[in-house]
């Protein structure tokens, strides 16, 4: 398999709908436009508006981050309402405004807020419970996080443990054993809740009767995968935590998994990969960690095992070789054998200050790895949609059976009508989408391909 050697400099960023613009340009546009001025709002207004923005925008929507940073959440929502009422739109924000307007749903915002009365929580930048480590994500930070469980668990030193869904018994045993011992020492294991390595990592912490955190790619009240409902319940029962940046009820589309991975990395002092194919979600998480300067470790496997090719790639490109728990202890910035400092009383009292990152060694993973972050979306290099995130997002929004109108597809994809129509044209030519009476769905061939990807 040929490696992607494309240089990745970080000088340009691709927004939620694939709109390329530097973060500085977006911020400058917002700050310079005379019609975009900030106002003071109460904390309750800010929280309510921040919840709304998690429904309006997808993860990694740099335009939304810039707008809410400049105006505040409530001010940004007021500005969008003025735009919808006919106020002039800055040209560089026209596409973004179309995306947000397609999802504007005042009744949906009210339903989301009702979750606070049903055992769910919400945090956003500036609130006391916001994880400070997420500041390192910069323009990639989430607009907010929905949560359930014990958010004070984030006060512990956090380690991301990720890997393949198609894990071997060897890989799952390593994940469970490492997680158990590290959790006993006071670490919080964070992962994505997927079948395979993720689940084994969560179970190890549960066996130690210690908290663990799962970050969903779906809405907080729609845990995925469904086969892990019992596991997710046990995570909460042992003082753990579930998190999601996407609005309640949202489905786990493919782009949300990739966006979710940056949060797993950003919450952590270090990322350890246990069994991963050459291109995978785990490698994507490691790429994000490299971008943020977070140490990366990988567990070696058989040279004949496809499920370890990603780990071997990481090791070749500078990741730390993990052969035991003490390697991870050092990776987290402690001297070998030193126990994690934990104050159970402070955690029990609900102190939600994010753990200080501590010393972190400089671990070099090459630009080729970081470039892989941009090449995910579940595509192979020969996929007809490779390099077109708009088309991928629309494909993921198309129903498998019943035809849906354009406005519904645009709302699900979080894109403007013009962008959706352009993407549908490409999907139709590729044999992925079909229409009837102005409504659209996946073709039978695309449905089968989607089913195979899901398995």
From TrEMBL:
Annotated Polar residues bias: 19-29, 36-46
Taxonomic superkingdom: Bacteria
Region (Disordered): 1-46
Smf/DprA SLOG domain sequence ranges: 124-332
InterPro entries (UniProt xref): DprA, DrpA_SLOG
Pfam families in alphabetical order: DNA_processg_A (PF02481)
GO terms (BP aspect): DNA-mediated transformation
Family: Belongs to the DprA/Smf family.
Annotated protein name in UniProt: DNA protecting protein DprA
